[in-house]
Amino acid sequence: MSRICSALALVVSLLTVAVGAADKADAPQTLFNGKDLTGWSAVDKSRAALWSVAQDVKLDSKNPKLLATSGTPTEKGLLVARLKDFQGTNLVSDQTFGDCTIHLEFLLPKDGNSGLFLMGLYELQLTDSLGIADDKMQEGDHGGIPFFKKPLTNASAKPGEWQTCDVVFRAPRFDAAGKKTAPARIVTATINDKLVQKDLDLPEPTGGGLDRPESATGPLMLQGNESPVAFRNVTVTPKQ
Q1: 183 SS3 class
Q2: What is 66-115 written as a DSSP string?
Q3: Long-range pairs for 182-186 at CB < 8 Å and ≥24 separation?
Q4: d(CA 156, CA 158)
Q5: Series of mean pLDDT values for 10-residue runs along the chain (240 residues)
Q6: Secondary structure of residue 136 in the 3-state scheme
């Protein structure tokens, strides 16, 4: 009887460890702590100071193409990118991911142009495309994949309003020799709860991303080199 009990205890213990590991793998990971840039690095180190953390952000009252920030947060702050001499830099996460679900919230000024780079290589456009008819949207508009795929619909909110972006992403597959056997894929991408991409294979990097080869894992990159933009609530849920 004692051997049976010991065996049952071992099985329960192993199941508990397995379930705990699965729960951890599928748990959302917060990439921005709301206080500072810990966990992120600027692509252009000389322009790293153009990214800052603020308590509040809104359209500049004198120029709606700019953002005005205020406050120094101790928590729940906002990531804000600005330009200097019409130039900025992108921000890359220290953590890397394979298959995952990504959630973030962003705010654009008038004519704003930003993007979410999956694995630092595949861009989902985040732009001010307000007022463009669905059938007039192009690859470079809100929710599009540059030079590759138009969005399914125009999901733009007004400049100065917070918007949401959620992406279910599948990383590219490689064999033991390192040869790619399946491309990266956007399973779904929604902006403001509107589906903008679905079951889209990404055969190659979309351009404008990191100078690195495709791989099984990679970082997130937030675009800040085209216009001011703000981000908050950036989370990634890895998938086993």
Answers
A1: coil
A2: SEEEE---SSS-EEEE--BTTB---EEESS-BSSEEEEEEEE--TT-EEE
A3: 184/118, 184/119, 184/121, 184/122, 184/214, 186/118, 186/122, 186/124, 186/145
A4: 7
A5: 49 43 70 96 97 97 96 92 95 98 98 98 98 97 97 98 98 96 98 98 96 97 98 94
A6: helix
User: Judging by beta carbons within 10 Å of its beta carbon (0-12, 13-18, 19+), is residue 48 exposed, middle or buried?
Assistant: middle
**SS3 assignment, position 135:** helix
Round to whole Å and give the CA distance between 141 and 150. Answer: 7
Question: pTM of the full predicted structure?
Answer: 0.89
Q: State how far the Cα of 237 lies from the Cα of 219, in Å rounded to an integer.
A: 13
pLDDT given at position 75:
86
3-state helix, strand, coil in the chain (%, to 5): 15, 40, 50
CB atoms within 10 A of CB 93: 20
pLDDT score at 21? 45
Enter the tokens of residue 55: 């308590």
**Which residue intervals of the chain are DSSP H helices?**
2-25
Q: Give residues with Cβ within 8 angstroms of 23, minimum separation 6.
A: none
The sign one gets for the Cα dihedral 189, 191, 197, 203 is negative
Cα–Cα distance for residue pair 149/136, rounded to 1 Å: 13
Encoding tokens for residue 110?
Answer: 């008038």
Count of C-beta atoms within a 10 Å radius of residue 173: 15
pLDDT for 65 = 97
Angle at CA 105, nearest 5°, toward 220 and 121? 20
pLDDT for position 17: 41
Residue 231, classed as helix, strand or coil, is: strand
